[in-house]
Specification:
globular; 4 helices; alpha+beta; 23% helix
Length: 164
Amino acid sequence: MLVSVPYNRDAVVEYAAKWALSRNPRYANFDGMGDDCTNFVSQCIYAGCRVMNYTPIYGWYYINLNNRSPAWSSVQYLYKFLINNKEVGPYCVETDREHIQKGDIIQLRDSSGTYYHSLVVMSNNNGNILISAHTYDALNRPLDSYVGADGMRFLHIVGARKWV
């Protein structure tokens, strides 16, 4: 039976605070292979739900550098997985800046309409949002300091599911 699993937002923030300015050796570092931002965000999400979806190609999982889903480390694929997932693993809904919470995800868009960077929300105090990220490592950086972004999407992690 597929059951709901709560999303531990405190665990997400604790993980992000610990690893925002360094790298967890259990995971590959994607800095030299593109960007590490979505890999880091996936690690944070996993810290909050402890459930992966091992569906080949379309799932969300990491075993090692050569055995992982595209959604683990790609901005676009992570979005598609989270927004469409009806099976095992985390899932989300789009929200707005006002309703984003700690442990949620923000993705930045450039002027061509391409989403290129994933951030994890550390806190939202009346619209004063602090984030943490990799690639351009940040810990509790104000979201408003991202002046080059042409737009953003706000992803509220609702929870996760697992089989029991």
